[in-house]
Amino acid sequence: MPSSHILHLSSHTHLRKRFTLVSTIAFGFIIINSWVAFASGLAVSLSCGAGPTLIYGLLVRGIVMSILAAGYAELASAFPSAGGQYHIVCMTFPASTRHFTAFFTGWMSILYTIGATASCSFFVAQSILNLVALWNETYVIQSWHVYLFHICLCTIAFLATSRFPAAIGSIGVSVF
């Protein structure tokens, strides 16, 4: 099917808008994982340069992430489709390599999503259990505790998004 036909088909279908401006900003903030990157880099910033490194590092990271987000937004507005990255790759690469590169990009996007979801929920599980250990001096964190808490967080997230899809925007704002 030619890409012009796909664009023609996708221009007539519309989804119901469930996100407000604030929930869209919150969703983008969560997707970019800037809070995880900031928290994981906090110890290095504090130990290597203290306050100035923390402040200027935050500004530089914010500028870089804004440039990346603007680039992705430009591509998404130029090639609006549900396919996202792999559809953009299929449209922009030469005909000899476009199918392989689009296939590879699609699988890399899937693997990234799985890895990002796992690492974020694992980070949150470790953080919560570290707070528990901080408050309760007799509690010793074991690896299976972290894994079990990680599975619980993934299950809660799955149930919340699969059973209540209209509440995703509100959940994103509350997490933001």
TrEMBL record:
GO cellular component, as recorded: membrane
GO molecular function: transmembrane transporter activity
TM region(s), chain numbering: 21-42, 54-79, 100-124, 144-161
Matching InterPro entries: AA/rel_permease1
Record membrane topology: Multi-pass membrane protein
Taxonomy, superkingdom: Eukaryota
Keyword Ubl conjugation annotated: no
Location of this chain's protein in the cell: Membrane
Keyword Transmembrane helix set for record: yes
Keywords assigned: Membrane, Transmembrane, Transmembrane helix, Transport
Organism: Fusarium oxysporum NRRL 32931
Protein's name according to its UniProt entry: Amino acid permease/ SLC12A domain-containing protein
PANTHER family cross-referenced by the UniProt entry: AMINO-ACID PERMEASE BAT1 (PTHR45649), TRANSPORTER, PUTATIVE (EUROFUNG)-RELATED (PTHR45649:SF11)
